[in-house]
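Milestone M4 deliverable, item 7.
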Amino acid sequence: MKKDIHPKYNDEIKATCACGATYVVSSGLPEINVEICSSCHPFYTGNEKVIDTAGRVERFKKRRAAAEPVKKVAKKS
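Output delivered:
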């Protein structure tokens, strides 16, 4: 077995969420930054929250508004 190929495992590091919540966890990384956690995730809080990454929600809404509704054509029998 090769020696010194595994990263150093840290027992207590700080994981920080964008909402400001901090947690102490174990990891091979020195620090963890996350966008969403259990304190602000809609599934756990019950609040609806739109997470917009690079304007994707606005682009989707603009495309949806520009699209015309599809007209149904009656079949001739």
